[in-house]
Amino acid sequence: MRRTTDHAATPETLSDPGPASHRTSPGSALWRFADPRSLRWKVAAGVAAAACAMALGIGILVHQTTQNRSLSIARAGAVEDLGKAETAFRAGQPPQSHPATGAYYRVGDELPDELRDRIGSGAGPVTWYDTRHPLRGYEMWAGSRVNGTLLAVSVDMGPEQRSLEALDRHMRYAALAMLAVVVPLTLLAAELLLRRLRRIAGTARRIKRGDLDARTASRGHDEISEISSAVDLMADALQERLRGEQRFTADVAHELRTPLTGLVTSASLLPESEPTDLVRDRVQVLRALVDDLLEISRLDAGAERADAQPVPLGELVTDCVRRTGLDTRVTVTGHPVTATDPRRLDRIVTNLILNAHRHGGPPVEVTVDGTTIVVRDQGPGFPPEILAHGPQRFRTGAVERGHGHGLGLTIALGQARVIGARLTLANAVPRGAVATLELPDQEG
């Protein structure tokens, strides 16, 4: 496959619209915000997980501390009530329960087996936290053996248990409220960082489109500022390298003009013969190449300016096809007229037609519909690397050399930018290459 290429191609000249995240559509901003792959949601998820872990740790600590404190107070109260009961029992008085305080006395067989086993044959006092009946309520027991009789006091832990459950419930509510505040603040903080990153990405895309003066101009001393500085330094180096290449192209073209003029004059003085015709043909090819290089150098330098005037597109395109002398089918819809530079438009259309005949396959068709001009051939189409990365000068897309210089689309693309047009390269289905030139929609 052979196809002329252009080093200065931009994403606007390609048929591939690029990654979905870079496309502009009414819902793109909303999708970018809601995209779960976005860094903002990863940061928010990390902060939310850290906040939940912290809330869980603090909740467990507070729960355990509060429970231990309640058990300690209940244990001390039960032992104190048991001491009073022992004193009354030794004095021959029956111990009195105190329902108001939740203290109840038990003697002998009324004691739970677990507490009886804990007291054993010892004198005590022994405490035991009974958690066997969560629905009925927990109890704190304190028991001892007095004159061979088992005596115990139980303290109802229901209020303390309910207070602990209420505390756990309030901590959960507080954790949810904290997340409701922390997550939006995290998204806001992440958005501030992402905005700087998007600005850097936008600068990189502008550089890719050919705006070599684009810079991030970021200030600061954090990691994002380091990335911005690196992008700016890369852009400076790339700009200097490309300008050096442009200066070299311009210098070569200018230096070749003087000897080429002498060569053209000398070739015209040669006697008529077959070798003379061959020499003259090659001289004309060299002359056309030097003229193309000079035109490219002017386009690279931004020295070209459009001279807009009302142009009947159908007549201009038909005249372009006629002057090429190539078999090209022209279809014009209506009588479109637009304000543009006719000389530059003629140069663009001529190069597209020559490119289609040289590297495509017949038939070649040119369609004019409104302010859109489409040149299509039936060849193998543009190679994928050209559609993906843009054309490059002096690369024709062919394995062999010598069939074109890869400058036709370079000039077409450069002139299209001068007149404010959009040139798009694409492949047709099932085969063929399509070059679409969209002119500014303004009538003269």
Automatic annotation (TrEMBL):
Primary location group: membrane
Subcellular location(s) of the protein: Cell membrane
Organism, scientific name: Streptomyces fildesensis
Membrane topology reported for the UniProt record: Multi-pass membrane protein
InterPro entries per record: 2C_sensor_his_kinase (IPR050980), HAMP_dom (IPR003660), HATPase_C_sf (IPR036890), HATPase_dom (IPR003594), His_kinase_dom (IPR005467), HisK_dim/P_dom (IPR003661), HisK_dim/P_sf (IPR036097)
Keywords: ATP-binding, Cell membrane, Kinase, Membrane, Nucleotide-binding, Phosphoprotein, Transferase, Transmembrane, Transmembrane helix, Two-component regulatory system
Protein name (record): histidine kinase
SMART domains: HAMP, HATPase_c, HisKA
UniProt-listed Enzyme Commission number(s): 2.7.13.3
Ranges where the record places region Disordered: 1-28
Transmembrane portions of the chain: 41-62, 173-194
Location of the HAMP domain: 191-243
Keyword Nucleotide-binding attributed: yes
Catalytic activity reported: ATP + protein L-histidine = ADP + protein N-phospho-L-histidine
